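Problem 12. The chain below contains 85 residues. Write out its predicted structure in token notation.
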Amino acid sequence: MGVPHSQTTFSILGSAGAEPAVVAACVAATERFPRFTRLATPVTAVGMIALTAYVLHARIAKARQALDELEESLSGIPAPRQAEE
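Solution.
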């Protein structure tokens, strides 16, 4: 079983600092060498799909949370009586 938060603060900060450096290097390479832009097109497309999926997931989670809150707030209200025939 994994141990929660097994990383140290410094390793987390180090990896968080390395990520923007790699992204900046990739952006600089594609700006300096136009051929890299064409070669990076598949990677860029996959990145856009992932971003779309993350945004869609966040919106669905927020909508479900709002529906749960609405259901909870309405749970104390008695159901309307149906007209007797």
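Discussion. The chain has three helices and no strands. Students who got a different answer should revisit the alignment rule from Section 12.3.
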